[in-house]
Structure formats: C-alpha cells, structure tokens
Design brief:
The complex is a heterodimer. By secondary structure, chain A is mostly beta strands. Helices cover 9% and strands 57% of the residues of chain A. Chain B has one domain (26-201). In chain B, the strands form 4 sheets. Chain B has a 7-stranded antiparallel beta sheet, with no helix packed on it. A 4-stranded antiparallel beta sheet of chain B has the order 4-3-5-6, with no helix packed on it. The longest helix of chain B has 10 residues, at 2-11. The N and C termini of chain B lie far apart (76 Å). The chains are: A mainly beta, B mainly beta.
Chain lengths: 740, 203
C-alpha cells in the first residue's frame, strides 16, 4: 500500500512540476491512460489531436501518455492502434466530466485545474481476438478472422492472467474437452475429446518433441515463460503435420522480440512447496535478436488423504533452459538458431530416482525471394533420455534415448489475391534405444514426406484450403496419403466453416519392437505387422462475432481405423500390440465469450464427446462425455496499475465404461463408473506501473477431494494457495510518458 | 552454408550426444554374489544375494560361509541358517529377534531383553506367470515374521513402495549360535530390486 501511495505521489509531483510553467502560457496538459477491455495497458498507442497534424504522442510501456495543447480551447483527441477500434474524446467534455472534477478535487490545487485534464481511453479489439495471427491451421500466417479451420488461441495476456503453474493447468482451465491425468506409475496422460497422447501432436514453434512415456511426451518440457501464444487446432491435421496429428495439434509459439531489451523474472510458491522460479531476457540490437529463458519447478511429495491407484505423489524437480538467436542478413534472409536443455528428477523411490533429460537444437533459414514468394529450410535435433539414478551407488544409468534429426523445406507463393500455394517436405531419422527392447537395445527408422496446400480465396467471402501429404515410414514400410479440404464462408458477423481432414499415425518403433518383461509378471511384445492408424475427420462450425461478443459452435465426427492398443495374446502368453476394430468419435464443441467496456469479461465452453466401437465392440476408454469450462474476470486500470480478478472453473461429468475383468480373458467384463468432479480457481492480481505484478491464487476453492484416487481423478488434496511475483525489469527503467 | 555446417556437425551425433554424462551399468562379469567381503577381525562381513526369482529360495550357511539355491518344490540343503525368497525370510528351526540397533557393529550379545520368534507357516508367491489372469501361485512354507519385516513392500500401487526397517536382527540358529544381521540394501547399484546386501556379525 505504501508503495502504491509513493508511486501515485511521484506521478502527481511530476505532473505539477510540468504544470507550473504551463499555467503562465495558458497551455493545457492532458495526461491519461490507454488500456484494452481486459484492463491491460496498451503501449505504443497513438494519441493525436484532430485537425492538428504533428501534434500527438504515443503511450509508454504502462499505457500512459501526456500531451501539451497550445491553449484551453476545445480539442478532439483520438487514440488509435492497429487491430483496435479507435476512440476519441473532446477536452471540453473531459473538463466537465465527473472524473475530471473528482481528480481536480483530490489532486490539484486551486487555480491549476483548468490547465490539466485527465482523459483515459479504452480501446476495444475490432472483434474478439480476430486480429490475432495464427499459423498452425494452415502453416502460413492468417488472422483468426480468416482462418478456415477453427483455432483456439490462448494469448500472452490470458497466459499471464491465468497464473497457471504448468501448461497442463492452462489448457485444462481454458479449454473444455481436454484432461490431463495419470496412467501407471504417475505418468501423465492427455485425453482430448476421445484421443490420447499418441494421437494429439504437441509442437513447440512447429517442431515435434522426441521421447514418450506410455504414449505421451514429457509435458514438463513445455514452459510458458517465453511463450507468446498457444494455438490449438482440434481434429485431424495430418495433411500438414503427418503422423500423430489425429485428434488435434497443440502448438506453443515463442514470443517475438520487438523491444531493445526486456527482462522478466517471476517466482511462484504454493501449497506443498510448489515452486516456480524463472526469467526471460530478450535483446534486440539492429539485425540481431536474442532470447534466453530459464525456469525451475519443484513440488514436494504429496500424501493423498484417501486410498487410490496412487498413494503418494512423487516429489519432482525440473529445469528448462532455452536460447534463441536471430540474425537478419540483408533484407531478405533471416537466420535463427536455438538450443535447449531440460532436466527432470522424480523421486519415485527412497533409493532410486527417475531422471529425464532433453538436448535440443536447430537452425532455420527463411528467405524472401520476392514479394510473392518465400522459402525456408530448417534442421532440428531433439534427444530425450531417461535414466535411473541409484542414490546408494551413485550410478546414473541411461536406459532410454530417443534421437530425432529432422530436415524441413517449405516454400510459399502467393498468386495475387487468388491464393497461396504452400509446398514442403520433411526427412527425419528416428533412433530409439530402450530398456524395453531385446535382444538388440535399439532400432531406427527413416521417415520422409511431401505436402502441398492451396489456400484459395474464391471470392471475398468464400475461402477454400485444400492439402495433400504423402508420408513414408521405413521400418513399418508404411505410407499414407492425407488429404484435407476446408471451406469458409464469411458474412459480416458470421463465419461458416466446413471441413474434411485425414488423420494418420504410423506405428512407433516401440510398438513394433517391444520385447519387455513386465516385472517378472508377463511379457509385452511389439508387432512389426501393425498397420498405421487412420482417421477421417468431418467438422461443421458456425461462429458469430460482434463487438465484444463471440459465439462459436462446432459439430465433429471421426471414423478411426486400426487404432493401436495392447491386448492379451493366448498364443504368445503375453500382451501384444494390435490394431483395434474401427471406432467412431463424435460430438459438439460450443464456446461463448464476451467482454464489456467496464472491464468485465466472461467465457464458457462445453464439449460433448460420444464414442462407439464399430460392430458393437466393447468400449473400454474412459472419456468423460460432458466437460465444461467457465471464466469470469474483471479488470480495473488506474494510474496505480491494473487490478485483475478471475474465477475459472471446469466441470467434468462422470463416465461409465466397461473394463476387462482379467487381461487374459477378453470375454469377461465389468462396468465401472468414475465420478464427476468440478474444480474452481480464484486468481487476484495487481500490476504496478514499474512492471511489478503480484498474484494470489486460491485453487480448488470448493475443497473437492476424491473419495478414491483413480488414475483419472484430479490429484488434489483439497484447497491450495499460491502467491506469485512477476517483475518486468525493463519497465522499471522505461521512460515514463509523464516525464517527457 | 550454416545449415550444411550444422548438418555435417550432427552427422557424428546420429545416435545422440553427451552419452558420457551417464554411468555404465555394472557389467555382468563384475557382479559378485555370496560372501563378498569379510571384516578385518574375521567376525563379520558383507553378503550379497540375488533373490529376484519368485520360484527360488536362497539358503545361507554363516558357519561354512556357503550359499545355495533351490527352486520351489526342491529339497533344501542339509544345513543352513537363513533363507530368503524375494523379501520373505526364514530362520528354519532357529528364531529371530528385532533389536533397536541400526548397525551390526553396535551389536551386543546379551539376549535377555530380546524376544525371539520362530517361523510360522505363511503363503508366499511362487508363480506370477498367470498374475494377469488374476491367478497367483502360492506355497505355504515356514517364514519368520520378524526377519521378514526387514523391508515393507507396499503392493497396493505400481510400482511397489519399498520401505526398509534399517534395524539389526539377532538370529539364533538351530544349533544355538548368534548372528547379528542387517539388510542394508534391497537393490543393487544398477537399481535391480531383489539384490539384497546383508551385513552380519558373529559374537
């Protein structure tokens, strides 16, 4: 509180100092704040005086501005910014406003009020988020307004205001239909509207991640510190991304550096000693830019207060380090290099810990051939290792290593206003060493693909995107053609979208060659004769956008063939990877959001998922049929900073499924119901002008505790609390608009 | 050129980098079992046993410093003091008392305050080959309830949670000798659970 008063006093003293000489010349000073409807300050907004070219200014990093008018006549001030609706105000109206009288009464001495005005602006996005540029759906930059595939974007503001400890927390809070839970031995498993970890493709800046455990990548590798936005495309996308893009694509896009320097450090501590400490330093000097990001996470072991599939959550510590460097060579070539290191240690036993490491790197060259044509060539390296660290002996023995080398070439050519042609291809060498292989401890395969996409603006209202991709996998000797066709018809406030897309997943080396003795209990065998998983995905959607309101509904249907699973084989007397009978997954996805000028915002989402195995086969998956998320938030901005409060929640229905009574007897089943639950989180934060943000988060405020901790129950012990501090150091040193 | 150089540099790293940061697993020829170490005074030492198979008992004769194995259903050797099957332990016709000590070097040989307990019949798992069918093969054999508490194995979740007691146990053999035992490890340096390290002392 004292700091707030100090800041306010400083601001006013600065303003008075400026006013003193002005009163003699009858000039008028206008100061104010410009923020968006979220209450977030908007830096770089142009504030100009109508009819007076050359008289104007821009807001500073805290959204503040100051203008000196030649006299006390009536002037019209206009605030404008790309992607936002402009706003204007007259000085006469402002001088007579209640806000001005209140300000003068409290802060200005007599005789001074006529020379100083406070005019704040609230700029509204031209439509909710539609100016956001996305790349995942078409692999070329398009605004949300124009993209023909439904794309959900979680932008930097939402990421920050969510105060999420992990990417999993963020996605669960913002999107219905997604759930992260545990499989055996507390390995994290994702479920997205009926699709599991091996059918949902996670990317970082468009690059896939090596390594998996029980069909899921290591989600601890996904940190939010340097992320500018998260793009989620539900449904198949193999025509652009190949294998694994069956149920959806989640793409984390790094933030672009535009300022000479920025430094943000953050710390968060919560119940169970849940710690997050990190920082990102970004530099830009002429043609060179750099971004360095570090983050450490830790949580203590947690004893569950009730029985279940897991009794104690393992203590875990992880470290992420990333470095990116970009260089502009001339006007046409941009080179980017990146390197990353990841380490995670899981205290799974008193005497032995599980360790996970990743070494990543890559280079990329992007060349603008001419105004209509550009091309890029990239190489990416990703190595994900697992090792067992035995404390007594001090031995750290690696027993798993997945090494992927990927080379990619992409070119785009725009044919005037007709459309854009994208062609590209990848070549990947995939090496896997695993303790689950025998007698050889490793296998490798080569994959190659080529794809083409035609983005056709048929009319100003009708857009079609069609694509075709061919994938070849050497070890499986498998190939697949993945087509897609998306159509979008746009009326003024309504966008209608329809699409067909093919999904595809090649058998992995693990699924083909596993030969693993499961704790002296049974064997798990790979199957080199597996066929690729395929899916046909149909989507129909309608989206209405008007001012601050958005309503979108999508109906989807997937026909999935040859899904790969493990079943008991009497012949082998063990589990063996097998292709399943076809299955169907369909449902609806409805989202509505609104934002008002008073700082209030709301979003609700609902997903219904229905699964069915063809020919009446047994459905053993436990996808919850109804899931919903809700968010209501309020922001208020002042000279002292921005205050935010947000209540988010997710509601997960119960699910009933059939399970085999015994793994070896596929004729005997039992019906099991997993209970419904809902979790709600309250986040309160206050940002101060010098870049300091304090946040307090109360999670699971209704104190939900499962009576039995199934693997798909939320791993919560009840209500928790966390506090976080973010310091945008560069804003502490930034020049204020009020001191110019 | 940069891309080509990067690609060339990584050719040598086709199967990965930084392999040197890891330790190598213990080579099979370096694995030592049985009475691997003797104390300088000859009154004690270290014993390492591989008791991983469910269908096998391992018998220890401290007097003769001899280790024998027998599969379930096979005859035990004529003379032995302690037998281990996974984490089950038997004292034969001897008996075992738990002490409050946590090092065999502290062992005193006064037994007045100790409660010796003999073996009792107990079911031990010997056949898990049909576990996935819900069928586990058990043998009913004598097991020492005190010595078998040297480690608690919580099978309620996978993987099991192992909690060693760290205690010193006093074995009174069938012929009346005393041996102080402490199971210090339930797995070896490579992390293989069921490779047991036992410290022992004689009076």
């Amino acid at each position: 509180m004292h700091k707030t008063i100090l800041i306010a006093t400083t601001l006013l003293a600065t303003a008075f100092a400026l006013l003193a000489p002005l009163s003699a010349t009858a000039q008028r000073v206008v100061i104010g704040l410009v923020h968006d409807t979220h209450g977030e300050p908007l830096p770089g907004v142009t504030v100009r005086v109508a009819g007076m070219p050359g008289l104007g200014t821009a807001t500073d990093l805290d959204g503040r501005y100051m203008l000196k008018l030649p006299d006390t006549s009536n002037y019209i001030l206009c605030a404008s910014m790309v992607g936002m609706k402009s706003d204007s105000a007259s000085t006469r109206a402002a001088a007579d406003s209640a806000a001005q009288r209140r300000f003068a009464r409290h802060h200005l001495p007599k005789g001074k009020s006529a020379n100083m005005l406070v005019i704040n602006f609230t700029l509204r996005e031209q439509a909710v988020g539609v100016q956001t540029v996305v790349v995942t759906a078409t692999r070329t930059p398009k605004t949300l307004l124009d993209v023909p595939v439904v794309t959900r974007v979680i932008d930097a503001k939402e990421i920050r205001s969510a105060d999420a400890a992990t990417v999993q927390d963020l996605l669960e809070a913002e999107m219905p239909g997604i759930e992260f839970n545990y499989s055996m031995n507390q390995q994290v498993n994702v479920s997205l509207q009926g699709f599991g970890g091996n059918s949902v493709l996670f990317l970082v800046d468009g690059e896939r991640l090596a390594g998996e455990t029980l069909d899921n990548i290591d989600y601890s590798r996904l940190t939010l510190g340097d992320v500018g936005r998260v793009e989620v495309v539900k449904g198949a996308a193999s025509s652009l991304y190949g294998s694994n893009a069956v149920g959806g694509v989640v793409n984390l896009i790094s933030r672009e550096q535009t300022e000479p320097w920025t430094l943000s450090v953050n710390g968060r501590i919560g119940s169970h000693n849940d710690q997050r400490l990190g920082g990102t330093l970004s530099l830009k000097r002429g043609r060179v830019s750099s971004s360095t990001s570090l983050q450490r996470n830790h949580t203590d072991a947690i004893a569950m207060p009730a029985p279940g599939d897991f009794g104690n959550l393992y203590a875990t510590t992880s470290l992420n380090a990333k470095q990116r460097v970009g260089v502009e060579v001339g006007d046409k070539l941009r080179l980017t290099a990146r390197a990353s290191y990841f380490f995670r240690e899981r205290e799974s036993a008193v005497e032995q810990h599980d360790r996970y490491r990743d070494f990543g790197g890559g280079v990329k060259g992007e060349y603008t051939i001419n105004e209509a044509t550009d091309a890029s060539l990239s190489y990416s390296f990703d190595q994900y290792d697992k090792s067992d660290y035995t404390l007594a002996g001090g031995l750290d023995v690696r027993d798993y290593s997945n090494v992927q080398h990927t080379t990619r070439a992409i070119a785009n050519h725009t044919f005037g206003s007709t459309g854009t042609l994208t062609v590209g291809g990848d070549f990947m060498r995939d090496y896997l060493m695993s303790y689950q292989f025998s007698p050889e401890d490793h296998h490798r395969q080569y994959t190659a693909d080529a794809f083409a996409q035609w983005d056709w603006a048929i009319t100003t209202r009708l857009n079609a995107v069609c694509a075709l991709r061919y994938d070849y996998y050497s070890e499986a000797a498998a190939d697949h053609l993945s087509p897609k066709l998306n159509l979008m018809y746009r009326l003024d406030q309504v966008a209608l979208r329809a699409g067909y897309a093919s999904g595809f997943r090649a058998p992995t080396l693990k699924e083909m060659y596993m030969n693993f003795d499961m704790a002296n209990i049974f064997m798990i065998y790979g199957n080199a004769a597996l066929r690729p998983e395929t899916s046909d995905n149909l989507q129909l959607s309608a989206e209405w956008t008007h001012n601050g309101y958005n309503l979108a509904g999508t109906a989807y249907y997937n026909h999935v063939k040859n899904r790969i699973t493990t079943l008991w084989s009497q012949a082998l007397n063990g589990m063996v990877y097998t292709n399943m009978e076809p299955m169907e997954i369909g449902g609806v996805d409805i989202n509505a959001s609104a934002r008002w000028d008073n700082g209030l915002g709301a979003r609700v989402g609902y997903v219904y998922t229905h699964e069915r195995v063809a020919d009446g086969g047994l459905l053993t998956s436990a996808t919850r049929p109804h899931t919903a998320t809700a968010r209501i938030d309020y922001s208020r901005h002042s000279f002292h900073g921005t205050f935010n409060v947000a209540l988010t929640g997710r509601v997960m229905s119960a699910v009933t499924c059939d399970e085999y009574t015994s793994l070896t007897d596929l004729t005997s089943t039992e019906r099991r119901t997993y209970p419904a639950y809902s979790l709600w989180k309250l986040t309160v934060s206050q940002s101060y002008p010098k870049g300091i943000t304090l946040a307090l988060t109360l999670d699971n405020i209704l104190n939900y505790r499962p009576a039995y901790y199934y693997n798909n129950s939320p791993a919560t012990t009840g209500r928790t609390i966390a506090v976080s501090l973010t310091w945008d150091v560069d804003r502490s040193f930034a020049k204020s608009a009020l001191t110019e | 050129m940069v891309l080509a150089a990067a690609a060339a540099a990584t050719l040598a790293a086709c199967n990965g980098i930084f392999g040197g940061i890891y330790d190598q697993p213990v080579a099979a020829e370096d694995l030592r079992y049985g009475f691997v170490e003797e104390d300088a005074d000859g009154r004690g030492g270290t014993l390492v046993l591989d008791v991983r198979p469910y269908d096998r008992w391992t018998f220890v004769d401290f007097a003769m410093q001899r280790v024998d194995t027998a599969h379930a259903g096979e005859a035990a050797p004529a003379r032995w003091d302690v037998a281990l099957h996974r984490f089950d332990a038997s004292a034969g016709t001897g008996a075992v008392a738990e002490t409050g000590l946590h090092s065999v070097d502290e062992a005193g040989w006064e037994t007045d305050g100790l409660t010796f307990v003999a073996d009792v019949d107990s079911a031990v798992m010997v056949d898990l080959s049909h576990m996935v069918e819900g069928e586990i093969g058990y043998d009913s054999v004598p097991v020492n309830p005190v010595l078998s508490h040297w480690v608690d194995v919580d099978l309620s979740q996978m993987p099991p949670i192992y909690t060693p007691s760290g205690k010193v146990y006093m074995l009174r053999t069938a012929d009346g000798r005393l041996v102080a035992l402490q199971m210090t490890e339930y797995m070896d340096a490579a992390g293989r659970k069921g490779v047991v390290t036992i410290k022992y002392r004689h009076p």
